[in-house]
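Q: Hi! Curious about what Sulfur carrier protein looks like structurally. Here's the sequence.
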Amino acid sequence: MNITLNQQAKQVGAETVAQLLTEIGQDKPGVAVAKNGAVVSRKQWAATPIQEGDTLDVFSVIAGG
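A: Let's find out. The predicted structure is below.
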């Protein structure tokens, strides 16, 4: 299916946020995800479906100050 990932068009086979993160190698601590502008909690990744045309942003959390 076709989605927008971090502002770039991408074709993916994943059906959930968790599967997408595994597919792109970002299934690790320190990652945050927004789907269509709303943050998806880590607890909901496996239950959050991805649909054709969705926009997802994957962020790596960096400590600092």
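A: A fun detail: The chain has one domain: 2-60.
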